[in-house]
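the two lines:
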Amino acid sequence: MKYVLMFTSNTDLDATINKETLEADYKKIYEWFTTHADKFADGGAELLGVETSTTVKHGDAGAVVVDGPFNEAKEVIGGFSIIDVPDMDAAVALTKSWPLLERPGNAVEIRPMVEDYSQFEQ
Amino acid sequence: MTSTDRLLAQTLREEAGPLVASLSRRFGDFDVAEEAVQSAVAEALTSWRRDGPPSRPAAWLHTAASRNAMDALRRRDRQRALATRVDPPAEPRTGTDDRLALLFACCHPALAPEARLALTLRAVVGLTTPQIARAFLVNETTLAQRIVRAKRKIVSANIALTVPPDRELTERLTDVLAVVYVMFNEGFVSSSGPTQDRDLAADAVWLAGVVATSLPREAEAWGLAALLTLQHARSSARFDEAGGLVLLRDQDRSLWDGDAIAEGDRLLERAAALRSPGRYQLQAAIAAVHATAPSWADTDWLQIVTLYELLLEHDPSPVTRLNRAVAVAQLGRRQAEAALADVEALAEPLAAYHLFHAARAELLTSLGRDAEAARANRQALALTSNDAERRLLTQRLHSRALEDGT
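prediction for all of em together
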C-alpha cells in the first residue's frame, strides 16, 4: 500500500535554526533515508523554499499566474516522499522515526495514494 | 429492559465483534463486513423479538451476515469476480484475538475521537446506529455520517485489524481504555431511560473484562475492569423509583451487588499484582473503599484522600483536584474550609462543568453559607444536560438540604 508523506515545517521557526544544527540534521535525514530505503518508492522530492512558489488559478479573465503559495499558511510543505508499506500502522511507525519530528513546528501528513482506480467507476 | 432484550444484548455483543473481524478477513473489506453484520443485528432484533431467539444464535447471525455480505458484493459490479471466488463459509470463530484486533482498529488514533466510540459500539459491541443515537441523544443522520467516514478511512488508509506489537501496545491501549471508560460513563448517566434496550454500562463492564483477559499483563486493563465492575455494582441504588438520581451518600447500600463488589476487588488485586499503578487502578481503589464502607459516615475518608493524592500524580487534572477537595471536606469543619478554597481555585478551568458548581454548593452549605450555595446550585443546574441530574439539582435548590455532589 502506497502513502505519500508530506513533510511540513514552520518557516518562521526554520529561520531561527543555526548552521551547525542544519548540517547535523541533514546527516540524520540522509541516514534515515538510507536505513529505510526498502520502504520508499520513486518520486519523492525535497522542495525549494516557499518564496520560490508560483500559483496558477482561475480568475475572471481566465488563468492567472501569481507569486507565492496557494495558502498563506506558516506551515509549508518542504518535501514529500512516497512510501510502500503494508498498512497504516507501518506508515505511522516509519513516520514517528523521522529525525526532524521533534523540531518545533514540524509535522508529517500521511495520505494514502489512490492505486485502485476501479473505485471511481460506476 | 426486558429479559429478551438482555439476552439479545448478550448474544449480540458476544458474536458481533468476532463476526465483523472474520468477515473482514474473508472478504478483504472491513466496510462491507461491518455493514453486513450491522444489518444482521437489525434483522435479529426484529426476528428474535418476534419469534424468540433461535437455538443457535451465533450460527444464525453468521449465516445472516454472510448472506448480507455476499449480496453487497454481488451488487457491486466490480466486485463480482471476488464474490464468486471467496471461500465457502467457515464455522464462526469465537476468537477473542479477533475481537481485540477489531477493537484496536476502531479505537485507532488516526480516527476522529468522536467516531471511535460510535464505531466501537457498532462493530465491536453490536449496537445499531439508532440505539447509539438514542443513548447519546445525538442526531441519527450525523452519527451515521460520522461512522461512515471512520469506516471509509479504515478501508482507504488501510488501518489493519491487528493487535499492536508489544512496543506500542501500552500506548495504543490507552486509547482503547479511554473509549471503554467513556462508554461506561455515557451509559452510567443515561441508561435509566425507558427507551433504552441496551445497557451501555453493562456492555462496557463486559468489554473491559474482555480486554483485561486478553491482555493479562496490562495492569491498567485490569484496573479499568475493576473500576467499572465496582461502579456498576452500585447501579441499582443510583436511581429511585421515579428515575431520580440518588447520590452515594443517600444510597441504600443493601441494594449494592455484593458479588460484583467482590469481583471488582479480585480484579483490582490482579491489577495490583502487576506492580504498575495507573489512573484506572487508583480510581478503582477509591471505588473499592466506597463499595466496602458500611455507610457514608463510616467511610475511610483519610484513605480516600491519600488515594486521590496518588491519583493526582498520574492525572493532575482539575476534575481530580475537585474530587480530592470533596473528599478532604469530609475530614472535618476546618478541612472543609480549606477544601472550599481549593475548589474555588479551580473556578477558571471548571467554570463550565456543572459538578464544579454542585460540589462548591455542597461545601458552602456545609459551612452554613446558604445564599451562596443556592447561587452555585443554580449555576450547576443551568449547565447540566442530563435529566436525572437536573431533577436532583432542582430538588436540592428547593430543599437547600445538604447533599453530596459526587
